[in-house]
Amino acid sequence: MSIVTLIPGDGIGPEVTSAMRKVVEAAGADIQWEVAEAGAAQMDKYGTPLPQHVIDSIKKNKVAIKGPVTTPVGKGFRSINVQLRQSLDLYVNLRPVKSFKGLKSRYEDVDLVIVRENTEDLYAGIEHKIGDYGAESIKLITKPACKRIVEFAFDYAKKNNRKKVTAVHKANIMKLSDGLFLNTAREVAEENKNVEFDDLIVDAAAMNLVLNPEKYDVMVMPNLYGDILSDLCSGLVGGLGIIPGANIGKDYAVFEAVHGSAPQISGQNIANPTAEIQSAVMMLKYLGQTECAEKIENALAKVFEEGIVLTQDLGGTATTTEFTDKVISEIK
């Protein structure tokens, strides 16, 4: 049995994590849940959206799955996601992006993976005001962080029968910081010649992903570019509502839906739980419960291909509950 820390989150988080639990349990997964609350609602009680006991739970259990949490824009507390990644050294943000047959999208043959460095770059949180005149953010790029994220990308490619790794950068302009990333990627590529390697400037990557996404396989990049391009890639296959994510470090892993907390539809039973369910699939594979993961994957694929019971964001009319029940009915 695996004990997993479950963080329901804010907004639609409790709804989609509840749906995920039902699906995981229906697949016969050997999981015991340890619920730990984090998010905006914890501010009044603890003075922080991420109480220490939540981090302690993850450290004890080694694996967590969370629903979306609210991050204030331009004010308020720091992102819980950033805090978790930095405090647990979850240096990999892994986001598989794959087309589903039956889902309406612009492309039918997308199957790529974004590997995003998760702990530094402009998201390191090193910024300060310059009086009333302006503000300055520091883009921190280090060789050890570059090396381990690119090594992870090549290891992932080899373990998952992927053929190519593409390093994404802006080294033509940021010659020192992104130059360090690119040079390190090339060094790691020299040690992994059984996997094809190339590199791509980030603005060209954005254009080419829209033109020919089927040409890309594993793409590795610094933090900011990964945040932007992973959302772009989600749009290629139907949106953030179906895309899973994982934050992985040496000792811990936190799986999560990549969409927001959508407070405007909270409590209406219309949220799409697919991203959370797919994140659980990634989690089950990480835990070695592959058979259960494949049951869920196959059930989702069948529901999407039939195209009858879909949530509103996917062009259907089903409630969260109806969609969840349909997925469970297809688990064999």
UniProtKB/TrEMBL annotation:
A single BP term in Gene Ontology: tricarboxylic acid cycle
Keywords: Magnesium, Metal-binding, NAD, Oxidoreductase, Transit peptide
InterPro entries listed in its UniProt record: IsoCit/isopropylmalate_DH_CS (IPR019818), Isocitrate_DH_NAD (IPR004434), IsoPropMal-DH-like_dom (IPR024084)
Cofactors, names only: Mn(2+); Mg(2+)
EC number per UniProt: 1.1.1.41
Family as reported in the entry's similarity comment: Belongs to the isocitrate and isopropylmalate dehydrogenases family.
Stated name of the protein: Isocitrate dehydrogenase (NAD(+))
Organism: Inconstantimicrobium porci
Organism phylogeny: Bacteria, Bacillati, Bacillota, Clostridia, Eubacteriales
